[in-house]
């Protein structure tokens, strides 16, 4: 089945479900605070809730480079299956939590397990889709991210209709069950292999399956290869710009993911069971449109100029700037809603092109590692802003601080225009 023409798109479909579950499981907590604080009193304080959201991000961030390095060396199918199984088990277990400390530990474990998915998943899609289908394939995959974000907004609604415990139990069980489906249908494919007989890494032709081999020739040999990869990445000025380009918009990106339901609730004086779905659906569905539009536009723009993917990402980032001001200073339901739509559309167009742009500057051998480091930077930014906005919410300054996040986006746009100048659509050698 792996050699069939449709299989690369089947991989996208299989991982689309994983991406949906990935963001659904992490997002629904952001709307369930009112239900959960009835049983866990510490959650009544916004600062504590910010800490709970931030611990996931800190652990996720620092595990991402490690997961990327591992994904470049091992079978990504089993990393994806294992990641989904563990984080879904954690989601299920959160339904049994009775104290803030138990929730805190479980969110930390979720950060470890979820960190292994995105670098492996995106790198696998990039190896199955090269050239003119790469951005749209990643765009379809990321549409699952935003659909999961939208579904996660209903966490409060489901919890109010049943219980927050049942909500965690049901979605956790769903993920565990789907991991068994992946075991049967998902297949590995790498653009390189490790030749144990020569103790060297060699390229394989596109479409060739990964040969069975010993990835651990020796501990010393593996460490040298990891070090070589890190040196190649960090001596590449373009990678530094891509790193900043990924992390700067992450400040508003994670602010919207984790705190927009609260902003909607406070600014519009809505119950969280209504504000949660409105906020997450608004941004998630517009982001879904953004990743599909951005993927389609990028795949065609890059055929006319090698900076086409970069220009598409810049257009997306530019749309988030007025959106942040509308979210921060909008005085009506319509203005805040429009801000959410603009932000989602722009962020989606930006987000879909991060891995394709990385592929223009980094070879297949180091892409998962590179994306893992990008996650470290981007999600660390997310952890900082998540904790900061918890204190900001308690002080009544959240909306102003939302608007000020546009400064980081402007800086990212400037660096993109000044520095990034790719020489190829798909770099194969470093």
Strand order across the largest sheet:
1-2
Report helical residue fraction.
over 70%
How many beta-strand elements? 2
- Identify low-pLDDT runs: 194-213
CATH architecture: Up-down Bundle
**Largest beta-sheet details:** 2 strands, antiparallel
Percent range for β-strand residues:
under 5%
Give the structural class.
Answer: mainly alpha
The gross shape turns out to be globular
Number of domains: 1
Terminal CA distance reads 32 Å
Structure, described:
By secondary structure, this protein is mainly alpha-helical. It has a single domain (7-419), classed as MFS general substrate transporter like domains (Growth Hormone, Chain: A), CATH 1.20.1250. 75% of the residues lie in helices and 2% in strands. It has a two-stranded antiparallel ribbon with strand order 1-2. Helix 6 (117-128) packs across helix 17, helix 11 (237-247) packs antiparallel against helix 19 (406-419) and helix 12 runs antiparallel to helix 13. The protein is globular. Mean pLDDT is 84; it is low at 194-213.
Question: What order do the helices and strands come in, and which of them pair?
Answer:
Layout: H1 7-27, H2 33-36, H3 46-73, H4 76-94, H5 100-115, H6 117-128, H7 134-152, H8 155-161, H9 164-185, E1 192-195, E2 200-203, H10 219-234, H11 237-247, H12 250-268, H13 272-301, H14 308-329, H15 333-351, H16 354-361, H17 367-395, H18 398-404, H19 406-419
Antiparallel strand pairs: 1-2
Helix pairs in contact: 1-4, 1-6, 1-7, 1-9, 3-5, 3-6, 3-17, 4-5, 4-6, 4-9, 6-17, 7-13, 8-9, 8-13, 11-16, 11-17, 11-19, 12-13, 12-17, 13-14, 13-15, 14-15, 14-18, 14-19
């Amino acid at each position: 089945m792996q050699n069939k023409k449709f299989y690369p798109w089947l991989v996208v479909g299989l991982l689309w479900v994983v991406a949906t579950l990935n963001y659904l499981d992490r997002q629904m907590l952001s709307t369930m605070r009112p239900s959960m604080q009835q049983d866990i009193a510490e959650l009544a304080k916004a600062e504590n809730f910010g800490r709970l959201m931030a611990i996931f991000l800190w652990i996720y961030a620092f595990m991402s480079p490690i997961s990327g390095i591992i994904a470049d060396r091992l079978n990504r199918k089993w990393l994806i299956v294992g990641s989904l199984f563990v984080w879904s088990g954690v989601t299920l277990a959160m339904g049994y939590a009775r104290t803030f400390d138990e929730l805190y530990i479980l969110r930390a474990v979720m950060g470890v397990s979820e960190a292994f998915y995105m670098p492996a998943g995106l790198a696998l899609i990039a190896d199955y889709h090269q050239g003119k289908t790469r951005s749209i394939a990643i765009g379809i995959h990321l549409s699952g991210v935003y659909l999961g974000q939208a579904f996660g907004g209903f966490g409060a609604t489901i919890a109010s209709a049943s219980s927050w415990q049942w909500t965690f139990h049901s979605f956790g069980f769903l993920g565990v069950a789907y991991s068994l489906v992946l075991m049967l249908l998902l297949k590995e494919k790498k653009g390189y292999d490790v030749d144990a007989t020569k103790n060297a890494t060699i390229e394989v032709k596109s479409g060739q399956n990964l040969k069975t081999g010993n990835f651990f020739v020796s501990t010393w040999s593996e460490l040298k290869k990891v070090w070589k990869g890190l040196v190649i990445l960090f001596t590449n000025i373009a990678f530094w710009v891509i790193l900043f380009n990924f992390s700067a918009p992450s400040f508003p990106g994670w602010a919207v993911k984790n705190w927009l339901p609260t902003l909607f609730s406070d600014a519009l004086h809505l119950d969280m069971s209504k504000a949660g779905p409105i906020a997450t659906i608004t941004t998630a569905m517009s982001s879904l449109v953004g990743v599909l539009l951005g993927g389609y536009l990028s795949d065609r723009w890059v055929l006319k100029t090698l900076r086409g993917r970069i220009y598409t990402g810049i257009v997306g980032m530019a749309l988030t700037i007025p959106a942040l001001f509308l979210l921060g200073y909008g005085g009506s339901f319509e203005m805040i809603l429009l801000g959410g739509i603009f932000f989602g559309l722009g962020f989606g167009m930006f987000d879909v092109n991060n891995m394709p742009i990385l592929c223009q500057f980094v070879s297949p051998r180091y892409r998962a590692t590179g994306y893992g480091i990008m996650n470290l930077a981007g999600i660390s930014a997310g952890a900082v802003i998540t904790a900061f906005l918890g204190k900001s919410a308690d002080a009544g300054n959240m909306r102003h601080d939302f608007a000020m996040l546009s400064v980081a986006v402007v800086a990212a746009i400037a660096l993109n225009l000044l520095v990034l100048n790719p020489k190829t659509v798909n770099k194969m050698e470093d």
